Amino acid sequence: MLPEDLMLLFINEQNGKLRTDSSSVENALAGAVLIELVSSGRVAFDPNGKKLQVVDPTPLKDPLLQKSMARFDKPMKPQRAVERLRKKVRDNVAAQLEGRGVVRVEPRKVLGIFPAKRYVITDETAAGGVRKAVGEVALGYRGADARTGALITLLYAVKSLHKVVEGDKRDMNKRAKDIAAGNWAGDAVRRAVEAIQAGVVAATAAAAASQGG
Asked: pLDDT of 71-99, one tens digit each?
């Protein structure tokens, strides 16, 4: 799933830390969950085209998606949806990866005091496959498909593409901007992804302003 692929991209395989700040990671992961819900047909825009709502309450097999869908107690704008879905999303996604034997989560301490987590990638094939696919698209070696297009759009939304893929930051961001507006998804999903991208950007800016204040 997109959230799991995105989490693997955020993990620095050398030290088990995240490649960017936790707020950006959580907002991007929430955006990935939201894209999965839209792609599943469970969530869509309301008739006014401004808010996302549950249109099909059929239970989902994936526990993360099901739990996330349950948080849609009313129609909400993309930014609000991202903010609602980001609660514990990093821990939940990491737990699913750990359950599949892809990642091992270990406790660590920052400055010897503050509790944190280290993410050890135990399935290098899975992680390497995601990184290779996204890297090839980000560097222009091939075009985006639904999976890589969504991942790059979300990384671009939290200004982290250059932290995940080695290459010229300006060139990659220009390419990512074009990918975000591209036709790698159907009309309904693309429209939702554009709104979700804007929601992730807004939620990340709001979180940064709050922390700065």
From this structure: 998 999 999 999 999 999 999 999 999 99
Tell me the residue ranges of DSSP E strands in the chain.
43-45, 52-54, 103-110, 114-121
The answer to whether the beta carbons of residues 3 and 33 sit under 8 Å apart is yes
Q: How far is CA 75 from CA 45, 60, 80, 172, in A?
A: 8, 19, 10, 35
- In 3D, which of 110, 133, 125 has the Cα closest to residue 6? 133
Show Cβ contacts of residue 137 under 8 Å, excluding neighbours closer than 6 positions.
143, 144, 148, 149, 152, 179
> What global pTM score does this model have?
0.92
Which tokens belong to 69? 């869908």
52 close to 71: Cβ distance less than 8 angstroms: no
Cα 74 to Cα 51: distance, rounded to the nearest angstrom: 9
DSSP-derived secondary structure for 6-36: HHHHHB-TTTS-BSS-HHHHHHHHHHHHHHH
Tens-digit pLDDT profile for residues 22-58: 999 999 999 999 999 999 999 998 888 889 999 999 9
Q: Alpha-carbon distance 114 to 210, whole Å?
A: 21
